[in-house]
Each structure stands twice: as C-alpha cells, then as structure tokens.
Write a structure and sequence with these properties.
Elements lengths: L1 H10 L6 H17 L21 H37 L5 H15 L8 H16 L7 H11 L4 H22 L1 H4 L24 H17 L8 H4 L2 H5 L1 H4 L13 H24 L4 H16 L4 H20 L5 H5 L8 H24 L12 H8 L2 H4 L4 E2 L2 H11 L17 H12 L2 H9 L4 E5 L3 H8 L3 E5 L3 E5 L3
Parallel strand pairs: 1-2
Antiparallel strand pairs: 2-4, 3-4
Length: 497
C-alpha cells in the first residue's frame, strides 16, 4: 500500500512534459470528431506527411478524460496508471515477508520511478509488468492476447515484451539442461524454495516444459499479431522500425542517451541498481546458483538501460521478480520455520497496521484532491514560453499565418494550445514523424551562425520564437532581424522587410 501510494503521488503532479502535450492534443482532436490523424495536421514543415499515431489508444483515453473532467482528470488518470504500475511491481517482488519484500520492491521501483512520466510509455510499462506477471504466476497464456493488443495500440515498445519472453524461454531451457546435468558438472541443482516462503509472489523458477513454456511465447506472438486488428492495422506492427531508421536523430535526445551520474533521477537509479546487484550477489552466494531465466533478461535489459535512459523503467519491471527471489534466497531460505515466524510471543499487528492504513488512505485522498483542484498543466517559463506564446496569439504574426520557427519543447505547447487552428509549428518532439533532414536543421538552428540563416531562408521562416540564451538570437540580431517581443527567457524576432 505504501508503494502504491508512492506511485499515486508521482502521478498527481501537474503535467509539464512537452511530449505529453502533443498526445493530449491528439486525443482532444480524436474525441472532437477528427478521428485518428493519418497525416500530420500540426506543423507547416511536414503538413500532410504520413503519420502513424502508434499511441492512439492512450491518446484516446486522454481525450475522453479531458472532456469529462478537464486536464485535472487526465492527471488523475496518470496517478491511477502509476499506482497500478507500482502495485504490479511490488506484487512481482513479494516474498511472503515484509522486510525482504520491501528490500526487493523498493529497489526495483527506485530504478524506474524517476523516469515515470505522463506519457503512453506508462501503458507500455504496465503491459510489460502484466506479461511478466502472467508468466511468473503461470497463468493461462491466453491472457497475453488482450495484454499485447492493448500494448501494440498504446505504445511502440511492445517488441520488448516479445524479447523478454524469448529470453525467459531460453533461460528456462538452459536452467533445465543445467539442472539435469548438475551431477556431472558438480553444480548444485536448482532447488525450489518452499511455496510457503514465496506463496504471494512469483515463486521459484518452474521446471522446463517445452509445451507449457513455449506456449507463452506463441501466445505473445499471437497477441502482437492481434494488435493489427485496430483502426491503424499493420502499420502499428512495423512502427518500431522507425526507431532504428532514425537512431542517429534519437541519439541527440537526452532520454535516448546513456544515463550519467550527476542528475538527481539518474543518481537515484544508479544507487538502486547498485543495491540490486548487491542483493543478487548475496543471493547467488547463499543459493549457489544463478537462474539463467532471471539472468538473461536482466543482462539484456540492463545493457539497454545503460545505452538509453528511457529503457531504465523497463529494466526496473524486469528485475522486480528476480529481486523477490533473490531476497528469498538471501534472507528467508534455509532459516528454521520457528525463527521465520516469530522470535517471541505472538503479537497482533492488526491495530498498528490498521492505523497506518488509515493514515495512508487519508494521504491518497489529499493527494487526489490536490490534483483535482490544480490546473492540470504546469507551464515552465524557461521551457514552454507561455508568455511569449500568448503574445504571439494576439499578434499580427499569428493572425497573418506567418511561419514561426521554434524548438521542439515550445512546439509541444504550441500544438496543445492551438492544435489545428494555429499556423502550425516548425517542429515538436515527434521525431519519429518528421523528416530526418528537419531534425538536422533543428540542430543547425541551435548552433546559430551563418548556417542557421540558410535554414531559415530554405523554410521561408518569417519569425523565430527562441531562447535568449541560445546563439540563434544573437545571429539574427546581427543579421538585422527585428525583436518584436522579449522576456527573461524568450524572444520573438521578425525577418526584416
């Protein structure tokens, strides 16, 4: 309950993510009767270009939430999603005892929660957690069909679910091979932990069964194929190839870069990963075995996490169940039953637990009320340029449909603020949709200098909304552009007649 409260609290913060703004606008337009966009309706640089809205289902829920309760209800939706994700991860890490479960669950959630953002990525994380839950609890493989259908239509990360299944199947097979030949290799066989020690969690690695184990992989593949039964059809299945085709562009984005120590979120993740590694080492030394069904997924997703920060939340979901087993091996397995149950006279915890549950229930309500009474959105003066955008809305530049250059962060707010009614944005952070050449042009504008003037001429830009601290504003002033607006953070410069 405490960990679910933590997820709820993270989700009740006002939305300030510029990528979320574009998803919100897409959902608003969908429920207003425009349907799912098939071409770009929001920019003048890619207007009419084919666009696969791979997160259409998530955006659709945002649109209906806003229609029913404003942006405040969208925030509540994000809080529910993060609370559900925290619950699923804590459930995967359960050991049957409080402190070992806390060690495993808190560590796993700390790896990923700094990167939980109000985007369709949350649907992908929940999808992965549900896939792992179905497999870990040996539930019917048929559950994977609706899970993958939801995942395919909500976020383009669904291949990671299939990847996890492949690694788990391979690891389970190798574990079985190793166990059967342990007497020849002088390796202790995998000995299941008593079900009473892990009854509420994932349990030990189950014996290999070719039919039973591979059936999960087959059901997952069938669920992905079923995802094409949707308004966008097969285009959703090939969308993940976009990330590979545009890998050079994505590498320029912060979330696609390797995590570095120094920032608060990455530092928390690094500390949690170090704690997870220590727990796994202690468990391996005590159990004298490393389950390859755990090790292979953790290793591959770990490499992905150290390659790009956006993969760390996926890694966190993958390590939850192995950390639960590691906590069992490290702190529970092998202890006498009497010591495990109590060290003295039995004491009822119903009173303290009830009081604590009451306090947390009040916290749930207070955080929810705070989210409901807020504005739902948080515009930052040094990122979204709210004052400059409002000035533009009342200016002759906006009324005349002038082409205004902007960076991708401001573009997200421009898309949400004006949608199809505005003159269009130069770019927003849909780098999967825009021409690759335009992303390179954005890099040139950020650098300023003579090449940036050539980019503005090529795109027939009439004005520029840009950060004052960037080099572009100095370049334009030197070239004779006229400053029409300026505040502490942003400036609007118009091309001279």
């Amino acid at each position: 309950m405490a960990l679910v409260l933590w997820g709820w609290r993270l989700g009740t913060k006002a939305i300030s993510d510029n990528s979320a703004f574009v998803h919100l606008r897409t959902g608003l337009d969908m429920v207003s009767g425009h349907g799912i966009p098939r071409t770009d309706p929001y920019s003048f640089t890619a207007l009419g270009e084919d666009w696969t809205v791979q997160s259409w289902l998530a955006s659709w829920t945002y649109g209906w939430a806003e229609r029913l309760g404003g942006f405040e209800l969208v925030v509540v939706e994000q809080a529910v999603l993060m609370a559900v994700l925290a619950w699923l991860m804590a459930r995967l890490a359960r050991t049957g005892r409080a402190l070992p479960t806390a060690a495993a669950a808190v560590t796993a959630i700390a790896v990923g929660s700094p990167f939980w953002v109000p985007r369709p990525l949350l649907f992908g994380l929940i999808g992965l957690a549900l896939v792992v839950t179905v497999v870990e609890r040996r539930a019917s493989p048929w559950w994977l069909l609706p899970i993958f259908w939801m995942w395919v239509n909500s976020h383009g990360s669904f291949p990671l679910g299939l990847g996890w299944l492949v690694l788990w199947v391979g690891g389970s097979y190798l574990d079985r091979r190793r166990s059967s030949s342990a007497h020849r290799r002088r390796v202790q066989p995998i000995s299941p932990v008593a079900r009473s020690d892990h009854s509420a969690g994932a349990g030990p690695a189950a014996p290999w069964s070719r039919t039973g184990t591979v059936s999960y992989l087959g059901a997952g593949a069938l669920g992905v194929a079923l995802g094409a039964v949707s308004p966008l059809g097969w285009r959703l299945l090939v969308f993940p190839l976009t990330a590979w085709e545009r890998r050079d562009v994505f590498r320029t984005l912060t979330e696609w870069r390797p995590p570095v120590v120094g920032q608060a979120d990455t530092t928390v993740a690094f500390v949690a990963m170090a704690a997870a590694a220590l727990l796994l080492v202690v468990a391996a030394r005590r159990a004298r075995v490393i389950r390859l069904a755990d090790l292979l997924p953790m290793a591959v997703f770990g490499v992905a996490g150290f390659t790009a920060m956006r993969n760390l939340p996926m890694l966190a979901v993958v390590v939850a169940a192995p950390l639960g087993r590691a906590a069992t091996d490290a702190f529970i397995a092998g202890r006498p039953a009497a010591r495990r149950s109590t060290e003295g006279p039995a004491v009822s915890a119903r009173g303290p637990n009830g009081a604590l549950a009451g306090v947390m229930a009040v916290a749930f309500v207070l955080f929810g009320l705070a989210a409901w009474q807020g504005s739902g959105l948080e515009l930052e003066d040094d990122r979204h340029a709210p004052a400059a955008v409002e000035w533009l809305a009342g200016s002759d530049l906006f009324a005349s449909g002038s082409r205004i250059a902007n960076d991708e962060v401001v573009g997200g707010w421009l898309v949400l603020r004006f949608g199809r009614a505005g003159p269009g944005v130069f770019i927003d952070d849909r780098f999967d949709m825009y021409p690759i050449a335009l992303s390179h042009d954005l890099d040139v504008l950020r650098a300023g200098g003579e090449p940036s003037l050539n980019v503005l001429d090529r795109h027939n830009i009439d004005a520029v909304l840009w950060l004052r601290s960037r080099r572009l504003d100095d370049t334009l002033l030197e070239a004779g552009w006229i400053e029409r607006y300026a505040d502490v953070h942003f400036t609007v410069l118009e091309r001279p007649a």
